[in-house]
Amino acid sequence: MISGVRPGPSGYSPAVPHTNEPPFQLIRLLGEGRVGEVWLAQQRTRGGISRLVAVKLLREAWDEDSDAINRLKDEGQALALLQHSCIPGFHEITQIDGRLALVTEYVEGVDLARFGTRGNLLPPRVAVDIVARVASALDWALTTPNPETGRPLNLIHRDVKPANIRLSDQGSVKLLDFGLARSSEMHRHAKTRMGEVLGTPGYAAPEALAFQVSRPPGDVYGLGCTLFELLVGEPFFHGLRIEQQAMLAVQSRDYRDFLAKRLLAVEHPDLRILLAEMLAYSPEKRLKAGTVCDVCEDQIRQMEGPTFPEWNRKRPAEDLQVNRTPTPLEQPIAAAAPQEPVSAAATAPVVEQQALNPWVVGGAVAVLASVLFCCGASSLAGALWFALG
User: Considering the entire predicted model, what is its pTM?
Assistant: First the structure.
């Protein structure tokens, strides 16, 4: 018997605090897209505990087999399987006012995209520190075992970019938005259609653009583009239209020439070598996520300047989030009765995708499939965001 607990009569369960308040009170809209919104919300649990959460809410009642609902379930499942310090925690999938909602940890902070311009660059050691943490999360997603099968999840994110990396006010780094994630060891409700390339222009790997191939090296490529942007202050493909990026994707020699010229903008020689291996044209020649983490940690030990925790403690007040306590909506939205738990699948941002017209490269090579991209805007203060599709 646990000390201090008085046994009750058979079938008796201790009472929990009772409240007539609705389970969720939406506070502030963090981001929105064509099929859904992300809200900062206050959740009151059945036990009377109150906490701030991020709520990804579908706009309307979708058909049970719709792509929007299936992607949201997949996103929730992915987050439920991934318990890592650099990945937001999964709470539940529920219904709010008849609309399906994904409830996750709320991460207060700023997106890494804020620091990708020349006027607001991070110290190089801080940038490498952040990339090491994200690489650790990517490696975890690949190698952590599925509790049901015991085999590695082999989960890939498919949309790594600065807008999907959050620096929390408490000094942590979070990789956001697993709505496009795919795993060979996880049942997926949503299916990628023939010819679809899921990702964001400027961060999608050549094999994804040219051949619609999504593999772990693609995540390393997106992280490489992110590191380049943090070090140089402009995107890796700065000044190139999406058609020009796609042409480089199918012309390996031109791509390698382009990469060599772009790397001249990186001042640190060892980081140029690291980026060359993260942004290699051939997926087989790119570093694995775990190796990227190891190399970055080695560089951090050799570099001068503040580490990420040191920099974060001294971060200027203007870099922190404002309007932390906005006025709640006039009418709080109530959640429906508890739903049956969704099997290990629940995350996918509803994304707006942009189709590219077929075009011919070099008069001989034609890319015949339409290329679709998740072109979403990241939320300013949420743990997740919806791409606009």
Answer: 0.77
